[in-house]
Amino acid sequence: xxxxxxxxxLILLIYAGIYYPSIGLSQETAGGRGFSxxxxxxxxxxxxxxxxxxxxxxxxxxxxxxxxxxxxxxxxVVITDLNGIxxxxxxxxxxxxxxxxxxxxxxxxLIYIAEEKRVAIVSYRGVYQKDLDLSTVPDKDKMVIxxxxxxxxxxxxxxxxxxxxxxxxxxxxxxxxxxxxxMERNILIGMDDTGxxxxxxxxxxxxxxxxxxxxxxxxxxxxxLPGGFSMTVDMTVxxxxxxxxxxxxxxxxxxxxxxxxxxxxEFGGPEIFKWPRAVAVDDKNRVYVSDSSQTxxxxxxxxxxxxxxxxxxxPPPVPEPPPVAAIPPPAPEPEPPxxxxxPPPVPEPEPPPVAALPPPAPEPPKDEVTKMVEVAGRLLPAFFAVDSAELNKSDLExxxxxxxxxxxxxxxxxxxxxxxxxxxxxxxxxKLSEKRAKSVMDYLVxxxxxxxxxxFIGFGxxxxxxxxxxxxxxxxxxxxxxxxxxxxxxxxxxxx
Length: 496
Prior knowledge:
By secondary structure, this protein is mainly β. Among the domains are: 1-41 and 235-314, no CATH class; 376-484, CATH 3.30.1330.60. Helix content is 14%, strand content 36%. The chain contains five helices and 30 strands. The chain has a six-stranded antiparallel sheet, with no helix packed on it. The longest helix is centred in the last third of the chain and has 21 residues, at 426-446. The chain is globular and about 60 Å long.
C-alpha cells in the first residue's frame, strides 16, 4: 500500500512539472544491437509568458537549430531553440478554416501551416503572406487535409477526404500527381530521402512508398505487446539514422522501427507519458515528445553494445553536506561542588495496548479498459453484445455519467470511437463498429450534447492475442478521445 502511494505521488509530480526523473532505459534488439534512452530536459515555454496548451504538432528545423510548436490551445506558434530556450512566438490570426493540423519550415525560411481545407504561408516572423493555391487539385472541394510534408520544392498533402496523397510543386503552386496505395482515412505522412511513410490508424498499418507512389512494403500489427498498435496518433522519420518513430497513445509508448519496418525498441509507459501526442526528432539523436500534461520531454537515443533490458526511474541525487571545520577542544572547567542526587522520578503508567487494525480489504480486480479510463480520468466506455449496436441498460447508466461530465465541460470536443471483436470479416466489423459509435453519439445528442462537439468513427475489429470471452467483450466497445479542450484539471469520472 505504501509503495502504491509513493508511485501515485511520483506520477502526479511528474505531470505537474514539479519533478522530472532521470530515466535510464536500455533495450537489446533481436539482431543484437542495443539502444539506450536518456532523459535530458523538459520544455514548458513558460518564458513566453504563457504555458503550452493543446500541442498539436512539432517540427524540428535542423538548419536553424529551432523547434516549432503548434500550440492550438493558445492560437499560436511557439519557437524555441533545440535546448528549449524560448525565442519567439506569433498568433496565427489569419487561420480561419479550422484548427491547424501541422507545421513545416522550408529551406528558404517560409512557414507552412496546414488546416483541413487550406495551407497558409507565413514569414519567419509569422506575418501572413498568402494561401497555397489549391485550385489545380482534382476534387478540391472534398479535400480534408490531415497531414502534410515539405520535401525541397515539393509538398505532399495527406487528403483523408479522398483517401490519397496529393503531390504539388510548392513554388509553382501546381498539382503534379496523386496516389492512393494503402490509404483509407486519417492519413499521416512521414518522409525521408528514400521515400514516403503513410500511417493509417483505421487499418493499424504503416505503408512505405517511393516518391512516385510505388509500394515498397507495409508493417504494423494490432497488439498490446511491444511494437504493437492500438491507437497511433503521430509519426516522424529520423532521416539521419533511418528510423520510423510512431507514437502509440493507448500504451503511452514511442516505438522505433527501421526503414523496412523491423521493430527495434520502444520506451515510455504511464510513469513517463500521459497520453503522448506529437513527436519530432533532430539530427543529434534527440527525440521530442509532447503529451496531455502540456509539456515536451526530450530524450537522447544512442546505439550501444547489447545490454540487458532494464528501465527505472530514480530520484535526483541528494547532495552531501559540506565538511565542517574542526573546532579546538574547550579548556577544562573546574569541577563543580558535589550535590546530593535528586530522588528518581516516579514512572508514568504505560498506556493500555491498542488493538491492531485489520488490514484493508483488497480492491476488486478491474478489466483493462476500466483501468485505462480511470488512468485517463475522463469519459467511460460502453460495451455491446455480440453482433449488436443496441444500447442496453448498463450502457445507458454509463452514458448518463458521460453526459453529465460533458455538460460540465462545454469546451470539450470528442471523437466517439467504435470497435468490434475479431469474429467476422473486416468489412462487416467496420460497419458494425460505425453503427455502435453512431448509436452512442445519437444518445448523447438526445440527452442534450451539441452534435458539433462530436464526431463518430468506426475502427473495425480488434485482434488480440488473448481470445477469452472477457477480452472479446472489452473489444466490443465504444470509447472516447478528447480532441479539443483543456482536460488537465477536469474532474474524474469514477465508475460505481
